[in-house]
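#data-curation
PF: Archiving a pair of folding outputs for the training set. Convention for this channel: one message per protein, sequence first, structure tokens after, nothing in between. First:
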Amino acid sequence: MGKPLIATNVPGCREVVENEKNGLLVRPRDSENLGNAMRMLISNEIRLQEYGKSSLMMSRHKFDFAGINNRIVNLYK
């Protein structure tokens, strides 16, 4: 959908969010850090758009259905 992301810096989330490329990673259980990340994105329209475009490109590259199927098929060859 081309949206910027904010996620907790833990395994699983780090594979989807590249900090300051398509979103922001925040410290676990740190509501102040989360609030700061939200305020930073809300106040910076250019960064919102850049992160959103990067998210869309990353999702198409990493999570494309056809690409994933091809990797699975090649794994079993």
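PF: Second:
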Amino acid sequence: MASILLTPPAAEPLSLAEAKAFLRLETADDDPLITAFISAARLHVETQTGLALVTQSWRIVLDCWPENGRIVVRPAPLQTLTAARVFDFDGEVRTIDAQAFVADLSTSTLSFKPWALPMPTRIAAGIEIDIAVGFGDAASDVPEPIRQAIRILVAHWHENRAIVAGAEVAPVPSNAAALIAPYRMLQL
């Protein structure tokens, strides 16, 4: 299963003004750098947790339907299923009614009856499922501990710019890691 980003978030979970207030900066000299740190911090948190923080569109690509009739959506949390398609050997597309799936938003799982759906005949990547994921459209929809971890990362990278830009990698502060730890989606 592959997950492909279709539409990135329209906003970051932390605004430039909020980051500058946290850093106690009043000038615009570092605005481009701080903006880049905010995006990098969001990506870091999303990678570490398996979550999409602000609403994004993704495509899940499968070779065949799982026999158990369940697709665990990553990144999570699942908001909605927007489209599902099956491809035949010749590349013809067959649209699947979204009503064939039950979306369990609490577990970010799509459930279905595998025998009731058409089978793809394309050798690989015969199924595409488009989804919307994230906590919501606004920064305020993101849990506050995650937003605080982003503030800490931005401040850490701002204070350690030479390490971030150089060959060394600035280690993630333990307090930021502790704030995102409860949100990690563990793989079993």
